[in-house]
Amino acid sequence: MSDLPALPVTFRPAQTRAVLLTAGVAIFVVITVVALLLEQLSPAERISFVFTGALLFGVLALLARPKVVVDDSGVTVVNIASRRRLEWPEILQVNLRPGDPWVFLNLSDGTSLPALGIQPGIAKQRAIADARALRALVEARSVHGPERSEG
To answer: pLDDT for 118-139, tens place per residue?
Structure first.
């Protein structure tokens, strides 16, 4: 199929990620500068300010972590605090219905796995295109097997 993206491919909410990481850096810098400028703070209080800024950055970095990595052997779904590797036959369906916060993968074990790496938050059209590309890849690999050139 010529419409399929070349593998490996990574789907992630790039604009959301940029906003979260930029905000995290800005928060860390502002809190650190405030800690250094407030002369009445003790060294321990300054350290606690910097630690709080680093903690807030860490939380935003975790929120920016989700992605879906697709390669020849399957799909890796990386969510906020988890990572799951799926073989092609495990994925039955890729869903992104109107109002869904992200893509859901229906799996052969009867469960559904959220794939936060494709989410229509800030970039709805990008998420729809990514969901369609992932759906096409799953259909090409899971139902019919990998497309191989005749020869």
So the answer is: 999 888 899 999 999 999 999 9
